[in-house]
Design brief:
- The chain is built from four helices and 32 strands.
- The strands form five sheets. Strands 1, 2, 3, 4, 5, 6, 7, 10 and 11 form a nine-stranded mixed sheet that branches. Strands 19, 20, 22, 23, 26, 29, 30 and 32 form an eight-stranded antiparallel sheet that branches.
- The N terminus is likely disordered.
């Protein structure tokens, strides 16, 4: 009889336990991760190595990569994007979702199953995505991975150590650093870009600001108008800045995750001699195409001829000629970014020019106090600056560059624009054509 009672109690206890466990819902417990044995069989660098420039490629094998999240949409500067980095390289992943930072925070290690995903380029930057939009046959675009497929391709395996940013100099910025978390030291915003909003929060437009290395060289800081810090103003001073490195075309760019990435705790750069408030040597821009540099203007008043980037003997220059246009009048303008002269004294402009097959075309250097920087410079009032311009290379290319001399700007104040204006022609008898080729290089403005 005692065994019967004990047996009944035992089975009742088991039944009660089953019923109680069936009623308890573990709302806070994440689903059990079943991929702990999943291992990466490829590196991020291997994706770059296998990519064919200009192509969009679909992954059809079982390639698996892993990396740590170094940037996300936490402050809306990286739109629908997560960037991961391993020991070999880094890459941007386009994801069709919002609030990605909650699932993929900085420092999270991700495992990515690439089968069925695509890789392609945007502005020369390699990206991962979910497919390709071919609606415009002239411009195919990588589309984000749909939210419904996140769980198929992405596994999170816990927080890891966030990689330290790689400290690099201007001369070390190269393609292998695309999407990498980097740190730039001894750098400051250009004078014209201090106390400016990081982004255009009103019009929701991306803004570009020039970052100048104290030792020379320029990188452009890009900030989305949707970034939470878009309405914060850029600091005046120098120091270090951390961010994700990218290039668009040939322009070297950086994107920060928030303003804590900017550590400008020092005074502005100190130079031996006059301080450089503007400098452009054209070396970071791709040759054999029209010159398009952030904040510069390149206009054809007549003749439809724009200034080009040209490379000769491993030196890149701004080049202009009427040759081959068959135009009776070629008038072209190359205009520097606006220069503020109220924040300095003793300003001087200098540059180099070189001529080729000189037959009478004219290159002038002009300054305007009332040009608005938006177009049609020929409608503004311009003053001619006294500069030495190359001339006389009738039978070929001049063997040397001509120094402009130090052009005094201290008599001017406020915001000014400086322009190179070319006037030539390419019709009629050969003896009457004026299609000299001019090169411009090392444009510099210094101040005391």
């Amino acid at each position: 009889m005692k065994w019967v009672v004990i047996t009944k109690i035992f089975f009742l206890s088991i039944l009660l336990g089953i019923l109680l466990n069936a009623c308890i819902k573990k709302y806070d417990a994440p689903p059990i991760y079943s991929g702990t044995n999943l291992k990466a069989n490829s590196s991020i660098k291997s994706l770059y190595d296998s990519h064919i420039t200009g192509n969009n490629e679909k992954f059809v094998d079982n390639e698996i990569i892993t990396g740590i999240v170094t940037a996300n949409d936490a402050n809306d500067n990286f739109y629908k994007t997560v960037i991961i980095q391993d020991s070999t390289a880094a890459i941007s992943i386009r994801l069709d979702g919002f609030g990605l930072s909650a699932k993929y925070p900085l420092g999270m290690r991700m495992i990515i199953k690439l089968n069925g995903m695509w890789m392609g380029e945007y502005g020369g930057m390699l990206q991962l995505g979910g497919g390709v939009d071919r609606s415009d046959p002239l411009f195919t675009e990588l589309v984000p991975v749909p939210a419904a497929l996140f769980s198929k391709h992405f596994l999170t395996v816990g927080m890891d150590i966030l990689p330290d940013p790689l400290e690099v100099s201007y001369n070390q910025l190269q393609d292998s650093l695309h999407s990498r978390l980097i740190k730039l030291n001894n750098i400051e915003f250009a004078v014209t870009d201090t106390a400016k909003y990081f982004g255009d929060a009103i019009n929701k437009l991306t803004t570009s600001h020039s970052l100048k290395f104290c030792g020379g060289g320029t990188v452009y800081l890009r900030t989305s108008g949707f970034a939470s810090f878009a309405s914060v103003k850029t600091p005046n001073g120098s120091g270090s800045i951390t961010g994700i490195y990218s290039e668009f075309g040939s322009q070297k760019q950086l994107m920060i995750r928030d303003t804590s990435d900017v550590e400008f705790t020092q005074s502005r750069c100190v130079y031996n001699g006059p301080s450089v408030i503007f400098y452009e040597d054209f070396e970071q821009h791709s040759p054999d195409q029209p010159l398009f540099i952030s904040q510069w203007s390149n206009f054809a008043e007549s003749g439809k001829q724009l200034y080009q980037i040209q490379s000769f003997q491993n030196n890149r220059v701004a080049s202009i000629t009427a040759l081959g246009t068959n135009e009776t009048s070629v008038v072209s303008w190359l205009i520097l970014p606006a220069i503020q002269l109220n924040n300095s004294i003793g300003e001087q402009l200098s540059f180099l020019t070189r001529d080729a097959f000189d037959n009478g075309a004219v290159l002038q250097i002009l300054l305007s106090n009332n040009y608005d920087g938006k177009g049609q410079p020929w409608k503004a009032k311009w003053a001619s600056l006294n500069a030495t311009i190359a001339k006389g290379a009738i039978g070929g290319i001049s063997s040397v560059f001509t120094k402009s001399g130090n052009i005094n700007l201290s008599n001017y104040a406020g915001l000014v624009h400086i322009a190179f204006k070319y006037t030539g022609s390419d019709t009629g008898p050969l003896a009457s054509r004026k299609n000299t080729n001019y090169w411009v290089d090392d444009v510099k403005i210094t101040a005391q």
